[in-house]
Design brief:
mainly beta, four-stranded antiparallel beta sheet, about 45% strand, globular
Length: about 350
Amino acid sequence: MAGVAITSSLSAQAPPRSDLIITEVWSSEAHDWADGLSMVEGLGETLEGTLWVSDAFPGKILIVDPASGRMIGVRGQGEGPGEVDSPGMIAITPKGHVAVYDLGRSSIEVFSSSGGFVRRVRLLVRVEWPKGFAVLPSGDFVISGPVSGINHAIHQFDQDGKLIRSWGGTAEASDWQAALIGTGGALQALHDGSLLYTQGTPHRVVRYVPADKFATGSGYWGEHVIVEMAEMLEAPGDAIIVDTVEDGVAYRGFYVTYPQSRGVFEMTGGSVLNVVVMYDEARSVWQLFDDLGQLLAETDVDQAYRPWFKCANGDILATRLDPVTDVPVVVRLRVSRSG
C-alpha cells in the first residue's frame, strides 16, 4: 500500500533455508464449485474428508466432496436454523461436528459432518477482527482477536456462549482502532487440552497448558513460550491506519496485509509449524520448531499462502489469490522435509 512502510527481517538479505518443502496437492481452479468465490474466511475438513468453505461475502458455506470435485451442499445467508450471515473460521469439535464462527451475528454455527444443522451458540460478547478460532476437547470455544472493553487477545467461551476468561496481550498502538485491528493471532486446540497460539506481530509462538482447573480467569492457563523472534517481524502500530482526503472528504482505511504470523499447527512428533504471510511481497515463510524453540526447518515460498486448517493427515488447507483477478483459490498443501 502506497505511503505505508512495514519492514521485516524476512527479506532477501540472507538466503532462507530450504529444507522444508511445500507442495500443492490440488487447487480449486479447475472446479465449478469455486466459481464466484469472493472472500474466503475459513476452511475445514471433516473426519470423513469433506471440504467446508466459508465465503464471508455474500455469506455462504460450501460443502464439497474433494474426490469428485462436486459441491454436495450449501448454507446460504439468512436468520433461520442453519443459515449464516458472515461465516468465517472453521474448527472441528470433539464430536466431529463442524463449528463456524459467524462474525456477522456474533455466533458459532454448529453443523453435523454431513451438513445438518445442530445448533446456534450466540456469544455474549463480539470478537472483532478475529484471527484464530479453536474448539477445546472440553467443547469450549476459543477465539483470538479484540473485544471492545477487554484488554486481552484470547477469549474462552463455554458451550452456551458465556465468556469464561480472557488473557494474552493486545497490540501496541496509540490509535485505538490500530490497537484493535492488530490484536490477536492464529490458534490450534490440541487433543491433550493444550492450545497453540501464534501472535500476529511481533513473532511469538506459545503453548498454553491447563495449569489449574479450579483457577478463575487467566490463571487457568500456564504459558510455555516456544519461541520469540521479535526482531523478525515489526509490529505495525499506527501504520495500520491509512487516512486520506479525496475531494475534501476524509476517509479512513485499514492496512491489514502487513507481514504477520497467520497459522500455527502441531505436526509429527510434536513439532510446531508457524506460517508468516507477506501479501505485499507475494510470499510466505514456513518455519518448523521443536517444542524448545529450536528451528528444525524453514522455507520461503513464492506464494502468499494463507493457512486456515490442518487436516487429519497433516496437510494444510490454505488460500492464495489469483495474480490477475485477485479471486481466492483454495489449495491443499503437503508439508515435508528434504532428505
